[in-house]
Specification:
Blueprint (H helix, E strand, L loop, with lengths): L2 H6 L4 H18 L4 H7 L8 H15 L2 H13 L10 H6 L5 H12 L15 H12 L9 H9 L4 H11 L3 H24 L1
Helix pairs in contact: 2-8, 4-11, 8-9, 10-11
């Protein structure tokens, strides 16, 4: 469904744009981008706002990126031999260990939302890409939920750690592409946190 159609179905235009942002970040954190995704990201442009500048920087980085180099950077950052430079899990960022209480809380809230674990997915549900994908579904109305569920989910499962995670991505990345992903992610989630704070 197009963004215009979703907006016409009663989803606020801002929420449609938020969902797209979450989808973008989930896509580049869930797997290394292939040539088609890099080509699509080359079209990103922006205005003079912090988020606009971050979009433009990612568009430039995608235009200059080689898929093989970006794939190696993804592997080094998030997979690694044994482990990557960054562990993209809420449990690790909040407790220093994997599969801890933050994961149990995520699982409880996903169950309440009627979201079942995909047996084909090996990552725990507190992986950054999975949490961002859930936020995309909540913001864009693809997941049926009461008003304000997106704020509660963000406050509970992302706000306490995700900005630090994106800072780490920007710092540890070997390629301009993932440095730009980190900068975009940090900029966006800070804006989200501020916006949710004003709505509280």
């Amino acid at each position: 469904m197009s963004d215009a159609a979703r907006a016409g179905d009663g989803i606020d235009e801002i929420d449609v744009l938020r969902a797209r942002e979450y989808d973008l970040l989930a896509a580049v954190l869930g797997r290394a981008p292939d040539a088609a995704l890099l080509a699509a990201l080359r079209a990103l442009d922006g205005d003079a706002s912090p988020l606009g500048r971050a979009h433009a920087a990612l568009g430039r980085a995608a235009a200059e990126a080689e898929a093989a180099a970006v794939s190696r950077d993804y592997f080094a950052l998030f997979v690694g031999v044994g482990r990557g430079a960054i562990l993209p899990y809420a449990s690790y960022y909040l407790t220093g260990f994997l599969n801890e209480r933050p994961l149990a809380r995520v699982r409880q809230d996903l169950e309440a939302l009627g979201i079942e674990r995909d047996p084909a997915v090996s990552e725990p549900e507190d992986h950054a890409a999975i949490l961002l994908e859930v936020m995309a579904g909540l913001a864009g109305g693809r997941l049926a939920a009461a008003a304000g569920t997106d704020r509660r989910f963000f406050d509970r499962h992302l706000k306490p750690w995700i900005a630090r995670f994106f800072e780490d991505v920007a710092r540890e990345a070997a390629t301009p592409f993932y440095r730009a992903v980190g900068a975009l992610g940090e900029t966006f989630v800070v804006i989200e946190a501020e916006a949710f704070g004003m709505d509280a």
